[in-house]
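Write out a record, focusing on structure:
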Amino acid sequence: MKDFALELGCLGFTMRLKRLSDALMHDGRKMYKELGVDIEPNWYVVFRLLKREGEMSVMEIAEKIKLAHPSVITLTNKMMKAGYLSSAQCTDDNRRRLLTLTQKAHDQLPRLEQIWNAGERGVIKALEGTDFMEMFALIEARFGEKGFKDRTIDELNKPTL
C-alpha cells in the first residue's frame, strides 16, 4: 500500500514530522521501560537544562527550549509528580516559581546521561552520510523568519497569470 503522506509531497511534511516524532517517543518509552527507568523521553531536555543552570522558572525553560509555556507546565508537573523536580517561590517575585532538580534526579543523572549519550551516538549513526541536521536547522530558521501562515497568505495574494 502506498504512503499517502509521501504522495502529498510538501503538504505531507508536517504529517511526516509528527509520525517520526511519535515513533521516536514510542520507542523511547519502550526503551526506558525495558531499562527500568521511570522517565518520559521528552524530559531529558529539562534534566540537562536544569543540571547546567541550577534553577529556572517555567517561563525561562519555555524560552530556552522554544516550547509553549503550557507544554512546559505539563512536562514539569509530570516530572515533579515523579519526584525529579522541586518547586519554590522566587524570593524576588512571588508569581514565579523556580524549579530545581531533586536529589532523586541527581542520583539518576549518571545513568540517564549514559543512556542519552548512547542515544546520541545511535542517532548520529542513523543520520550518517546525510545533511539532515543542517537541513533541519535551515527549515527551522526559514519558518522562524516567516511562518507557514504568512507564506501561504502571500501565495494566495499573488496575482495569477
Q: What stands out?
A: The two ends are 38 Å apart (CA to CA). Strands lie at 55-57, 85-89, 97-101.
